[in-house]
Design brief:
310 residues, alpha+beta, Rossmann fold, Tumour Suppressor Smad4, 2 domains, 6-stranded antiparallel β-sheet, 8 helices, 16 strands, globular
Amino acid sequence: MFGNTLLIVNPQAQSGRARHAYQETADLLKSITNITRGHYFEVIETAHPLDAVIITHELGENFDTIFALGGDGLVHEVVNGLMQIEEEKRPTLGVFPAGQGNDFARSLNLPLNPLKMLGKLANLEKKTIDIGKVNDTYFCETLSFGVDAAIALETMERRKRTNKTGTILYIESGFNQIKNHLNAISAQITIDGKAYDDLTFYTFAVQNGQTYGGGFKICPQTKLDDGMLDICYAAPPLSKLAAVRLFMKAKDGKHIHDPHIHFLAGKDIKITFKDIVSAQVDGEPIPAYEYDISLIPEALTVLKLEDETR
């Protein structure tokens, strides 16, 4: 079904949730690997940050399909490994969501539980999607700056510190950042050659997928294969109370008609800040003064579900 298959597991995802699903997932994938046709199956656990980048890059050409069992952080690493492989040799990516946010899995219409995914394997379809690139890093879902990036990074820190999980962590971080750090920032921005000088905003999200923060629909109309990166930014002035209301509306994509919210789109984006600001890519910090962002169309084949309810 999937040819030569590699399962990369982050056993620490969502406080060990991935480890609980590991054996059942591995057993089923192994059982459906067609040994009679010479196909093989292998499992590798990550132990350190960036392990999955190295594993995927060095071993990927030997496999037809690579599954990531973990959260968005693991998927981000696997994607960065895959994108270092020549396009014609690049394996298909599959995801068993076992993390905190699972935003990329949401964009693929996957069940947000790795064990529920086992019952959906026969329904998976191959789809070619676009991939974003910022400086030397690839991203499959999100890149953001300002308050929303600070919220994402604080959520990661809270998770590590408290060992708690759930969207509530993102909401708690959001309230804290809005209460204590609602500061507008300015940047020099160029989108497909059009300059936006001293654009001022609280948040600036560049999306390949619809969501970030565990399902916050920041760009509800975005598609992984539409050939564009979608941008949503929040412009001042905003009171703290108005910012909280806007933040909560974004959970269900109901912020889009607010007068402070603006949308743009492009394939080639350049952003320059005078100072280092909060910035995240697929949930990972990416500090810099300058960001060179581009879209790579039809870059990666993934396994997704069509029109499924989770």
